[in-house]
Amino acid sequence: MSMTVDRSQIESLVRDAIRQSMxxxxxxxxxxxxxxxxxxxxxxxVDGKPNLRVSISARHCxxxxxxxxxxxxxxxxxxxxxDLYQDGFYAAKQTxxxxxxxxxxxxxxxxxxxxxxxxxxxxAFTDSxxxxxxxxxxxxxxxxxxxxxxxxxxxxxVQLEQGxxxxxxxxxxxxxxxxxxxxxxxxxxxxxxxxxDCSVIFDDVLVREDKAAKLEVHIDTDEGNACNLDAASxxxxxxMPGDCACGH
Length: 248
Known about the structure:
Radius of gyration: 19 Å
Order of helices and strands: HEEEEEHEEEEHEEEEEHEEEHE
Low-confidence stretches: 16-37
Helix content: 10-25%
Mean pLDDT: 86
EC number: 2.3.1.222
Cofactor: Zn(2+)
Subcellular location: Bacterial microcompartment
GO molecular function, one term: acyltransferase activity, transferring groups other than amino-acyl groups
InterPro entries: PTAC
Largest sheet: 9 strands, mixed
Distance between the termini: 42 Å
Number of helices: 5
């Protein structure tokens, strides 16, 4: 979906916003967050078993090197501000403003690094409503046919022709985690969250296996709020119904 926003309108919208200090937009973990594990154990394991972490992935964007320079100035690179749980990934100091149809906007959307071959904006459903964009649920990188938006930084703006998605929930894990649960890359799992008066079972959690990954489920802010993740009394992963039982 193509979208055009007049440059003068953008400048009017962002004149004050780009002067604001950058606010944090990280992730929140479940009470089962990991502590450092001995070197004899796989990454992220504690006491001989996987230590599940469930993180709320707030709205954020990924940028190409070219778009970083357009938005923040020639020669600019992403500046790490806070390391994410997955090694090598970080929340950058830089933020952008996102402008949707009819000049609706979201200020201070965090950029995550490192840079990618294509730019992508990841929103929750309520974010997409606020912007006036009908963002589809997609797994990261599957942006063909998705809506676009305008990204605005202190040095310029970028009009994305596509790349706005509602990120589908997924779990990062390594081969040791996969063996423990009896799953493989591309399988679907089930995330069970027990919370007082609002327990939720999330189906269709995509398995994304990588040898460098640590066990972590990503859900968006709407999903985290629906189950009151911060107050959860129990959180565990299991195979989808119909598969054999696994530990948790």
